[in-house]
Amino acid sequence: MTTWTLARRAQKMNPSVIREILKITEKPGIISFAGGLPSPKTFPVEAFDQASQRVLQNDGAAALQYAASEGFLALREHVAQNLPWEVDPDQVLITTGSQQGLDLVAKILIDSGSRILVETPTYLGALQAFAPMEPVVASVASDAEGPDLNSLSQQMGSGANAARFFYVLPNFQNPTGRTMSEARRAALVEKAAELGLPLIEDNPYGDLWFDTPPPKPLTARNPDGCIYLGSFSKVLAPGLRLGFLVAPKTLYPKLLQAKQAADLHTPGYNQRMVVETLKGGFLERHVPTIRSLYKNQCTAMLQALDTEMQGLGLEWNTPDGGMFLWVRLPDGMNAVELLPKAVDAGVAFVPGAAFYADNADPRTLRLSFVTASVEQIHTGIAALAQAIRTFAKG
Amino acid sequence: MTTWTLARRAQKMNPSVIREILKITEKPGIISFAGGLPSPKTFPVEAFDQASQRVLQNDGAAALQYAASEGFLALREHVAQNLPWEVDPDQVLITTGSQQGLDLVAKILIDSGSRILVETPTYLGALQAFAPMEPVVASVASDAEGPDLNSLSQQMGSGANAARFFYVLPNFQNPTGRTMSEARRAALVEKAAELGLPLIEDNPYGDLWFDTPPPKPLTARNPDGCIYLGSFSKVLAPGLRLGFLVAPKTLYPKLLQAKQAADLHTPGYNQRMVVETLKGGFLERHVPTIRSLYKNQCTAMLQALDTEMQGLGLEWNTPDGGMFLWVRLPDGMNAVELLPKAVDAGVAFVPGAAFYADNADPRTLRLSFVTASVEQIHTGIAALAQAIRTFAKG
Fold this sequence. Notes:
homodimer, alpha/beta, Aspartate Aminotransferase, domain 1, 4-stranded antiparallel sheet, globular
């Protein structure tokens, strides 16, 4: 009889709340504002098809062979050249989606019991990526402009218990859609340097601004104090699993060794396909079409909320880009309890509680405006209002 | 001033010896027997090109969207149907190369200080994948038929110190090219069950037999006591990074959660491309051409060794498949010291020492016969013999 002894970390692992919700909400007929799925309308299928043919026909053997763990040089060069601060391609590590960047960061910076800091609320996938290394996660309070720096100082810890890093998502944050202001960025970078605190800056959504680009990244202000994570999932397509990280040169070798051990390298074929697709300024033409689509859908959702939620006591924010907006139900209501009623009414969302490391606000919920069409958005928000009215009556 | 505190595991990480050697040996003009790179002649470039077009044109949106962490169902079904024991597709997890399978196994089964067992010698990449979880690695002695079961019992440990698993590569092992005999497989599975010891069976090379298939997998004999790892890297191409694992249903959810946290999912586009490629019995036509190519090159290397190494006191084995053979230099010679002289003579290999968890045999070295052509093999082995003669003279 075989004895499988699970590692302590595995005993603590739980199924992703979001993945479980997505399963429920995948029923036909449900309008889902739950997933963070980019609109398939934005996927450059035709460009990929041509790029794939060129890669296989001109460079098939190299594209299909084992390759460097660092990533394909031409892609690393593209990344370095398109970031708004001076980056050497040797600081760029191509990752299997930016989720893998979080796994690698966790592996090289977190010991069991290490203190790490996250925003309140924060990206659930980051909490999941960090959890296997068994950190103690402390939340930094935040307001509409970003993290509260007094809370940061209080949560920092000291000596052996000093936080290993602060994980932040400054642009159109998942889950809140919030953007960190210029003033808060400047103050946060200064405060972090003063505290000696490394920043892990996650920027999957930064290119998806509606009217004006967000302020420059935290990493641009102090490159030696930050690891920066980026992704091609939102500007091209998530199904290729292509992300990257930019690290100070002193840390890069350890991240590279962790990468080698994790999956040897990110698919070289996919990297070459993207390099081929990007040639001739593809993103300069393509990304504006995504911005305009998402802005249009976000506007539709805000209008529908204005119309449908009148008098119901809800609050929500107005994102400047990205994929999500953040709603707060009136006092006494609970988003987890609302969800099944909403699904009955034909609409789904993610309760906000999933995104808190602790002290969840049970009244919050996340709405994605990128997957559903404008028409579906109007229908779905009306259904959600109906579910809320039913729920309020008990 | 930012303080980056590395996790303890990161301080122990080291650059891959093989990757470092590969860098040296990538000089033009060097005939390399060092890398484990499948022959690019075997990559089905044309079939991939057609498959990629079909996937993008017929199913582009789904292929490029976020997808299930388990992997694409049709691919999991293919894997389950083609294994020689009863496997439910729900036991199959698609991984980003089989290297990722090792990372996930390590995450769910190894605590800091956990005892784990490996063969002597063993696959270097496995040692690297396990290392971040900080195991105590103990080596099980082996002979030409496979692991020594007395050594296994001695190394097992007991109580809280009992080994979490024994990692084995029974078919055409990397690095030795050795195949575990039928008798040893039966005895090992019985002994492991008696000890309560889980087996991690890695089988990247099993399809690459020359004349007869290897005996059936360990997992087929005791599916609840084993995790089985497989790969498409050697039968299709490594650059797609597609592997899989098969786990007992009780363990699967934890592996799945570790997978979600690691990279959300393996590229769906790549999975669909491979499903499309495999339709109509592609592998049944394709894999025999790889077998015949590698058998031919292995035979050439054995002939060249017979001819060129006469009187030099070397020993080597005769693999029944796979990619590698294993050479032992005469007493007093050291493969690490020989390497620079071999590179000077125009040929490269990997010193065997890299593949031992402890007590390395400094006289061993690994030769890959799959990347170089027959002509290069003859030239390269002659150059190696020359280097050995020079080295022997001091």
